[in-house]
Write a structure and sequence with these properties.
The protein has two domains: about 180 residues, Rossmann fold (3-Layer(aba) Sandwich), CATH 3.40.50; about 90 residues, N-(1-d-carboxylethyl)-l-norvaline Dehydrogenase, domain 2 (Orthogonal Bundle), CATH 1.10.1040.10. The longest helix has 20 residues. The protein is an alpha/beta fold and about 280 residues long. It contains eleven helices and eight strands. Helix 1 crosses helix 2 and helix 7 packs across helix 9. The chain is globular and about 55 Å long. Strand 5, helix 5 and strand 6 form a beta-alpha-beta unit. Strands 3-2-1-4-5-6-7-8 form an eight-stranded mixed beta sheet, sandwiched between helices. The chain binds acetoacetyl-coenzyme A and nicotinamide-adenine-dinucleotide.
Length: about 280
């Protein structure tokens, strides 16, 4: 099917990066948030990236104007009535996502695809509250979405071949490489990445090394662009905790059982880069 108009729900870290990426690829993009303050923040993040890219000489003023012309924010989901594809990128909470899928299913045209950017939650459960179960799947972007080249296309037990092929083609049209994962908690990348990040927290909890040395170890010893604590702060500690809990629920494997310190960080309201408080400034009082 032809995709021209895309909706993105959630204008946080991921939603704004996804909306930016899709608008840059030539699609018309509408991005929704829950209130005006968060919408302004999300829209500002997208347009700010275009200003940054213009400043660096990576895109022309003309291109930035074109991107801005096909992107806008809204607080009204009814405006999604003409979207061919909607990417859900709201908080990692299954009840909230289910409510949203049900609402969107009642608004979108019959042929539209509805996908989730969830890191770990079962997508078939989202499909089950809609009347378009074969047209629901996952489109899992990586942070920062405009830069990272991978997209996981998640196929549930109900997703049709046509939907999977359309999503793969769509990912390619964004300049990404798609890989296909089953609808199993953590898909491919987070199934490997989450236990690595949790192991780093356990090492620190057990006094085996400082956070700085753990980060330096993985950056210089393995060539990773960020150490695990830097990455945890970048991804979001709340998102990491919810994703780990979801994979642990599914597999009962202790490697995914969130360490107490991660819970305490989230209970303390330290979510990482997104709210300016994370592991990197934990010891600054
Ligand atoms: N749009 C377009 N380009 C952007 C951009 C944006 N919004 N933001 C940054 N860029 C570009 C910059 O212009 C820059 O390009 P040049 O090098 O050509 O100038 C490039 O991206 C790199 O940016 P920076 O110079 O600011 O930063 P950096 O070199 O330190 O790299 C990084 C930053 C790409 C984030 C790198 O540190 C990295 O790859 N980190 C690891 C990220 C990672 O592992 N992500 C996956 C997280 S897990 C996940 O996402 C899944 C989940 O479900 C939790
Ligand atoms: P975030 O907290 O930065 O953003 C979530 C946004 O969703 C918030 O701004 C919130 O106001 C908004 N929201 C909540 N309910 C909404 C609703 N009903 N309608 C519209 N907006 C709503 O979180 P994030 O890091 O952007 O994560 C979003 C999703 O992407 C999660 O499912 C997460 O697991 C997944 N994800 C995150 C990363 C990452 O590195 N952070 C990477 C890949 C996937």
């Amino acid at each position: 099917m032809a995709i021209e108009k895309v909706g993105v729900v959630g204008g946080g870290l991921m939603g704004s990066g996804i909306a930016q990426t899709i608008a840059q690829a030539g699609y018309d993009v509408l991005m929704a948030e829950v209130n005006q303050e968060l919408l302004d923040k999300g829209v500002g993040r997208v347009t700010g990236a275009w200003t940054m890219l213009t400043g660096k000489g990576k895109i022309s003023e003309e291109q930035a104007k074109e991107y801005r012309g096909r992107f806008r924010g809204t607080l009204d989901l009814n405006e999604f009535h003409d979207r061919d594809l909607v990417v859900e990128a709201i908080i990692e909470n299954q009840d909230e996502k289910k409510k949203l899928f049900k609402t969107l299913d009642g608004i979108l045209p019959a042929g539209a695809l509805l996908v989730s950017n969830t890191s770990s939650l079962p997508i078939v459960e989202l499909a089950s509250v809609t009347n378009r179960q074969t047209q629901v799947g996952g489109l899992h972007f990586f942070n920062p979405a405009p830069v990272m080249k991978l997209v996981e296309v998640v196929r549930t037990i109900l997703t049709s071949d046509e939907t999977v092929e359309t999503l793969k083609e769509f990912a390619r049209s964004l300049g990404k490489t798609p890989i296909v994962a089953k609808d199993s908690a953590g898909f491919i990348v987070n199934f490997l990445l989450i236990p690595y990040m949790l192991a780093a927290i356990r090492m620190y909890e057990h006094g085996m090394a400082t956070m700085e040395d753990i980060d330096t170890g993985m950056k210089l010893g393995c060539g990773y662009p960020m150490g695990p604590f830097e990455l945890l702060d970048y991804v979001g500690l709340d998102t990491t905790l919810w994703a780990a809990e979801a994979i642990y629920r599914e597999f009962s494997d202790e490697a995914y059982n969130p360490p107490t310190l991660l819970r305490r960080m989230v209970q303390a309201g330290r979510y990482g880069k997104k709210n300016g408080k994370g592991f990197w400034n934990l010891n600054e009082g």
